[in-house]
Amino acid sequence: MKKTLLLLLFVFSIFACKNKENSDSSPQMTSEEKNGIGNTIAMANGLDKFEDATTVEFTFNVKVQDSLRSSRHWKWNKKTNEISLTEGDTTRSYTKNDTIAEEKKDIDQKFINDSYWLLFPYQLVWSDAKLTEEKKTAAPISKDTLSKLEVSYRSNGGYTPGDTYDVFYGNDYMIKEWIYKAADGDRQMATTWEGYKDFKGISIATMHKSEDGSFQLYFTDIVIK
To answer: Where do the domains of the chain lie?
Structure first.
C-alpha cells in the first residue's frame, strides 16, 4: 500500500515550473550551451514539426500493479489554446492564458502534468530550467552507458518548485530513462522512456515503466495534426 501511494504521488506531482528567472547561484550552462543540448534533444524529437501542428489529442494512462488508476483524454487546440479534458463521462474545458479562473486551475495542473510527460523533450527549450550536462554515465535501470543531463527548476514559483530530473539519452539524442526527484527529497523514481512512435516526424515515447514493471505510465489515442 505504501509503495502504491508513493507511485501515485509521484505521478500526480510532476508539474513543470515555468519561471523567467533563476536565482540558483550554482554553476549552470550558458544560454548558448543550454540552447545547444536542449535544442538538439528537442529537435531530435521533432520540435520543428510540432511547432507546425494545430491540434494535439492523447490519453494519459497510469497503471499500478495491473490496476488502471487514471485515464484522462485531452484535446488541445494549439491555435486558440482551448483545452478539453474528458474523465469518465465528464468533459471540462478551459482556455490556457495568463489568467486562469480558480475553478479551472485543477484542469490546468493536470494538463501541465500529463503534457509534460508527453512532450518533455520540448520543455528543454520551452521552460526556464537549469541544464547541467554530465557525459557518459550508467543509466539507473538498464545500466547502459548513456549521456546524462540534469534538468532542475528554481525553488520558488510554479506548481511544484524545486523539482529535478536526471535525463539519460543516447547518441541519437533520444531519451532512454530518467529519474524524477521531488524538491522535498522524499520522492524519487526512475522510469524508462520507450515505445517511441513517429507522428509525421514527431517522436513520442508512449511507455514509461519502473524497473520492476509494477508502475506503467503510457499514452494511447495520440493524434497530432
So the answer is: 2-13+27-224
**What's the pLDDT score for residue 11?**
56
Confidence at residue 10, expressed as pLDDT on a 0 to 100 scale: 53
pTM here is 0.85
Phi/psi at 12 (5° precision): -90, 10
Residues 36/37/40/46 CA torsion (nearest 10 deg): -120
C-alpha cell at 190: 526512475
Report CA dihedral (152, 22, 47, 58) to the nearest 10 degrees: 60
For the chain, list residues with pLDDT below 70.
1-35, 155-161
Beta-ladder partners of 165? 151, 180
Q: pLDDT tens digits, residue range 160-202?
A: 567 899 999 999 999 999 999 988 777 899 999 999 999 999 9
**CA 173 to chain CA centroid, nearest Å:** 16
Q: Which CATH architecture is the domain 2-13+27-224 placed in?
A: Clam (2.50)
